[in-house]
Design a protein that fits this description.
There is one protein chain. The chain has helices spanning 27-45, 62-75, 88-97, 130-141, 158-168, 191-198, 223-235, 263-277, 297-301, 313-323, 348-361, 366-370, 388-407, 457-474; strands spanning 17-20, 51-56, 79-85, 102-106, 115-121, 151-154, 177-181, 201-205, 240-244, 251-254, 260-261, 282-286, 305-309, 327-329, 335-337, 377-378, 411-412, 415-421, 426-430, 435-440, 447-453. It is an alpha/beta fold. A hairpin with a 6-residue loop joins β9 and β10 (251-254). The protein has a six-stranded mixed beta sheet with strand order 1-5-4-2-3-6, sandwiched between helices. Strands 16-21-20-19-18-17 form a six-stranded antiparallel beta sheet, covered by helices on one side. The longest helix is centred in the last third of the chain and has 20 residues, at 388-407.
Length: 484
């Protein structure tokens, strides 16, 4: 048994595991996590030596964490196939390409330096959801480990296999000038090559790998990153700007005029584009996404249905899989393409490629294509601090308060609440299609707040002020990461 092993139970989150390295988890804790995951994989696959693809992102400590996780996995009997420095979608792709039994990717995605984590999955194309995370937590913390004799091998040059797979089937005809921003994260050694490979003229922005993230975190929801991309798009008269997160499963998009297009609107454009060829399809979007999907003329004309579901890459992946939907879109920039377009997992570079296809199919600039969508006034995703151990109860109480307001027919900015969706926190909608969302973050000690109005900027702000007032009255809320 490992001595002085540290592992904070709160690191087991809804659909991945994240900790501050050495403060909340140490090397011994990571090794035990590997033993827990290996045991879980064996229990699910009923194999003595299941094959597990492992990769890591470009953080200074990711390789030592990967080494500890592998020790744990091997001790249970897992045979490791290490594909080296990777993006999360490269690891997901490898499970299909190498026909492996499970995957483990060492990454804290866009979290600040100091964070580490693991994205893991057993069934192809899916990652752990709450049930699997609960099971893994129980096995790991209670040390219900199996023993076995595993092995390890390195898979050489897998980056090339992943890149060529995306390039070969996605060539474009038009010369699209694209700014490709990676915030010095791992996507820097992938995205420029792949987008050049399909035929784009690429202007690189912060694509050299630097684990200190000298400018900002690689996070396509971060306004600082988006503003920088906008500036470079305008300076270079580019057609489009893409911003990728640290592990390459998300993308943010800036149009040719330097305007940010929230990912849910990009999703709507892609859904419209796909609905013409794939009529009667289903699309899955998360509760943070624009309300425009439900009444969109083109989607309705092509008999397509949109389902709003829980935020989180694992939740949307599973819903896409269970509903046999064509695609799924999350406001945070995770897009999921199911057969025949993909294997159902989220890949930020593949998402950017779909935006390139959109431009390739239209004789219009991105800003002109955007004009086909009704204007709505949207806030960015805002995250006020709320302790992990308090956030779910805070949201539960707020759901009750909002339900009472609806019952009592109380108005907010002269609007009645007409609909409440509680699949994930609370999304409450008004007569004019405006809405507000309050939910607990799945991977940080914070809440998540979004509001949107198709009517006016003022109404968007009034709904936010209403939410903020409710939050402040709880006495449980700290500072916002960003605020309108």
């Amino acid at each position: 048994m490992i001595q002085n092993m540290k592992i904070d139970p709160y690191g087991f989150r809804e659909y991945d595991a994240r900790w501050l390295y050495k403060k909340d988890i140490d090397e011994g804790g990571i090794e035990n996590l590997g033993k827990g995951l290996g045991t879980q994989i064996k229990n699910h696959t009923h194999k003595n030596n299941p094959r597990v693809v492992v990769g890591h992102d470009y953080r200074s400590y990711s390789e030592e964490i990967k080494a500890a996780l592998k020790r744990g996995l091997i001790s249970t009997g897992c045979n490791i196939e290490d594909i080296g420095l990777s993006l999360s979608p490269m690891v997901y792709f490898a499970q299909f390409n190498l026909d492996a039994d499970a995957i483990a990717m060492i990454t804290a995605s866009h979290n600040e330096n100091g964070w580490t984590g693991v994205k893991m999955g057993i069934k192809k194309g899916l990652t752990h959801a709450p049930e699997e995370m609960k099971e893994l937590k129980d096995i790991t913390l209670n040390q219900k480990f199996v023993e076995g004799k595993g092995s390890e091998k390195k898979i050489e040059n897998f980056q090339k296999v992943y890149k060529e797979n995306l390039i070969n089937k996605n060539k474009i005809k038009k010369n699209i000038k694209a700014v490709v921003a990676c915030g010095n994260g791992t996507a820097g050694i992938f995205a420029p090559d792949i987008l050049r490979g399909i035929g784009c003229e690429v202007i690189e922005l912060d694509c050299n790998l630097d684990w200190s993230f000298p400018k900002y975190n690689p996070n396509p929801e971060d306004l600082e990153m988006l503003h920088e991309i906008a500036k470079v798009v305008k300076e270079n008269n580019a057609d489009i700007g893409f911003g990728f997160d640290g592990d390459g499963d998300r993308v943010g998009v800036i149009d040719n005029d330097g305007n940010e297009i929230f990912s849910d609107k990009i999703g709507l454009l892609i859904a419209r584009n796909l609905s013409k060829k794939y009529q009667n399809s289903k699309f899955i979007v998360d509760v943070k996404s624009t309300g425009l999907y439900t009444k969109d003329k083109i989607l309705l004309k092509n008999n397509c249905e949109t389902i709003y579901w829980k935020t989180g890459h694992s939740h949307i992946k599973r819903k896409v899989n269970n509903e046999n939907a064509l695609a799924g879109f999350e406001k945070s920039g995770h897009f999921f393409f199911n057969q025949p377009l993909g294997h159902g997992y989220d890949d930020g570079i593949n998402s950017a490629i779909h935006v390139c296809h959109l431009l390739d199919n239209h004789d219009k600039k991105m800003s002109e294509i955007m004009k086909d969508i009704p204007i709505t006034y949207q806030t960015p995703t805002m995250a006020p601090f709320c302790k992990d151990e308090e956030k779910y109860l805070v949201v539960e109480n707020l759901v009750k308060q909002i339900e009472i307001l609806k019952e009592n027919k109380e108005k907010i900015d002269d609007q009645l609440i007409t609909n409440i969706l509680t699949v994930n926190g609370v999304r409450f909608s008004f007569e004019d299609g405006s809405w507000g969302l309050i939910r607990a973050s799945s991977n940080k000690p914070s809440l998540v707040i979004v509001t949107e109005s198709p009517t006016s900027e003022e109404r968007k702000i009034k709904i936010f002020n209403f939410i903020d007032d409710l939050l402040q009255k709880t006495g449980k809320i700290g500072e916002y990461d960003q605020k309108i």
